[in-house]
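Discussion board: Methods & Data

I've been asked by a reviewer to show the raw model output for two of the constructs in my manuscript, not just the figures. I'm not sure how much to include, so I'm pasting the format here to get opinions. Each protein appears as its amino acid sequence followed by a line of discrete structure tokens. Is this the kind of thing reviewers expect to see in a supplement, or should I convert it first? Here is construct A:
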Amino acid sequence: MTKRYLVGLLMYLTRLLSLFPSQTVRNLILRHLLGLKLDKKAVLYSGFLIRSPKKITIGKGTVVGFNCELDGRRGLLIGENVNISSDVKFYTLQHDYNDSNFKMVGSQVQICDYAWISTRAIILPGVIVGKGAVVAAGAVVTKNVPEYTIVGGIPAKLIGKRNPNLDYNPGVERLHFI
């Protein structure tokens, strides 16, 4: 009981931190007090909800938009130069609906370099989004997404291919007080 209370308190305090109007201060606290592995050239915009920050890695040049939910309970690895739009949700745990006790099951989520996860997409446990892949707005991703493909829908399905010659850095132009 005490552990769940402390976990809930940490989530609440992290949520309050997400509203602090300075990325620099937020990032220092996330890195040095909460153990989030956040590259100095990554951008994490306000309104985030983070579970288990010590099990989350966010690479160089990556941007995480407003109001994103980052679940690190089973591990969340986000590569370099990834663009995560606002209101995206990553889950590493879910309930087994066939288990009589409704137990929790899940595994690590990995987002590879140059991927783009568009607005309000949901990435479910165990998914790997390949290098340069695009997840369309509102998609629910239940299976791995191959490199340089575009998926969309519920559940997400292949809808196109992406140019593999990518060399951009979405973290270059950040808004410092948001």
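Construct B, same format:
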Amino acid sequence: MDPRALAARARALALDAGFDSQEGFTRAFSRTFGVSPGRYRAGARPPKPEALALHVAHLPAANLIQAPAPARKPALRIAGLGQDFTEVTVSGIPALWRRFEARLPLARQSGGGAYGVCCAAPGAQPLQYGLGYIAGVEIAADAELPEGLEVIDLPARSYLVFRQVMDGGPVHPQMQAAVREIWGDRVPNAGYALARAPDLEVYPEDFQPDRAGAWVEWWIPVQG
């Protein structure tokens, strides 16, 4: 199919599915199923699809609490370690966090919380999966760039906020369940247009993933 026709079809499918843009649909599909809609249509599948299907069937409850309305968050300057991932390498995010945590605390760090910044990887095409991820912390607005790290400045904006309460079990299946519920159900049905901006995982200072009652927030940027 002609690439322009394919792109037009993708935009139509995104609108039919309740998304405001092809980008929003592609981001949701990729984060939920581990492969972009374009590559899925072409026959690409996540590694070991039978095992993936079995794993998905046994995901724990996501335990999500959704804020009743978008919340306006202040500007953030986040410094951290960044890496680009594909659907095959995305399992490397925990290792990125371990490398970053070894460098903490940073000079002029603000607070003790941490942020996972998720955005489209540079150069990724509209129908390709490409996740740019930064494991970072907030630093002062006038702080110097720490050596070996990168900085991303996020302006004040509105986010859909989902708080996930952990059950004390393994953290990664719980977060996978949250990604699927947020992007597969909550965001499409929220009635808000997604903004072209990174979404965030927000970890409080005392976050302990194996403690029942610990929480992490997911901030999804919306227009307005």
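Answer (T.O., handling editor elsewhere):
This is acceptable in a supplement if you add a one-line summary per construct. For B, something like: The helical segments are 3-16, 22-33, 37-41, 49-57, 93-101, 171-186.
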